[in-house]
From TrEMBL:
Ranges in coiled-coil conformation: none
Keyword list, A-Z: DNA-binding, Transcription, Transcription regulation
Species of provenance: Planobispora takensis
Positions of the HTH araC/xylS-type domain: 225-323
One Pfam entry name: HTH_18
Entry protein name: AraC family transcriptional regulator
InterPro entries cross-referenced by the UniProt entry: Class_I_gatase-like, DJ-1/PfpI, Homeodomain-like_sf, HTH_AraC, HTH_AraC-typ_CS, INH-QAR
UniProt-listed CDD domains: GATase1_AraC_1
Keyword Protein transport: no
Gene3D superfamilies: 3.40.50.880, Homeodomain-like
One Gene Ontology MF term: DNA-binding transcription factor activity
SUPFAM superfamilies linked: Class I glutamine amidotransferase-like, Homeodomain-like
Amino acid sequence: MSAGSVAVVVPEDIEVPSWDLYEVSIPCTVFGQPHPDLADPWYDLRLCGMGEGRSDLSGSWLTVRTDYGLDGLAGADTVIVPSVPDACVEDGAPVPPALVAALRRAHADGARIVSLCTGAFALAEAGLLDGRRATAHWMHTAQLAERYPKVRVDDSVLYVDEGDVLTSAGLTAGLDLCLHLVRRDLGAHIANQLARRMVVPAHRPGGQAQFIELSVPATDDEGLAPVLEWAGAHLDEPLTVEELARRAAMSSRTFYRRLRASTGMTPLQWLLNQRLASARSLLESTDLPITKIGELSGLGTANNLRHHFLKQLGVSPGDYRRAFPARHRPDSGRG
């Protein structure tokens, strides 16, 4: 496995709202800070301005230096467009033609193209989303759908992975997508360790709803955090909604409602997600038999494990493990 190179397009108008700056900083934080203990080499990050070559983009209170122009997209394994100017979204102004052309060239050369929030408008303008499912921040999906009718816009999800083209909703959903990319490139174990260092949920599935009643993850719910931590340590045991609710000192109905509001998932969906994550980590980091991994993750028999992997991930457990050579499994788990 190789982390590869990531080119991030920095918009020209850096006097942008703070949430746009946050979206620019997300890929810089995830891909730009080396973690040699997790993967060496880490990603090679490039900041690419909209002009040619190095430039200093100055606003009233911020200066961003980019060492590359749009020519920096050439040869990158992944290209990320965090946003486009507000005028492109609100006023129908054209997406900069040079950016559109650079995205088309990068995609044709085999790069993985990614947008965060309004960056989807650039991908759509380049024709990379035609006939594909895509998303953006729910405040902008109506404009995206109206302007680009060939795009199948989904305003209800955090991110969409179409293989070589990925899109996300705004703000923290962009972080979810970047961690998803790390998970794809380097595996669930490394992505989970990175998320832990960033003090964020290790995995929010892309299909999770943008619209949730609470703006904080479930682990910040003082009533839910202890029982969810306990459940994560006992995935190999039979767990029921009634037992989890009892441990949380709630009725089953209240527990169901609060977990759904906090995570966008039902208790059973949450448990399945945790068990799949556990199984993936065990497949990546140990040589344990598939049957044993089914038991330890709480997914039961090898057939049941295979069923859920094929349904949720599209691959068998064996094929998933083969993507992670033995040298990436320091702990064989054989005692």
